[in-house]
Specification:
mainly alpha, 39 residues
């Protein structure tokens, strides 16, 4: 049971970090044109 629990935690952790990384990259590229000063 302990090994099964550790496996579930690792899977959830990987999913969480992948989702956070995806959200960060998407947000960065959405607001990238707005971050430059007007020329």
């Amino acid at each position: 049971m302990n090994i099964d629990f550790i496996g579930k935690v690792q899977a959830n952790t990987e999913f969480y970090w992948r989702y956070q990384r995806y959200s960060f990259v998407r947000e960065y590229f959405e607001y990238l044109p707005l971050s430059y000063p007007p020329t």
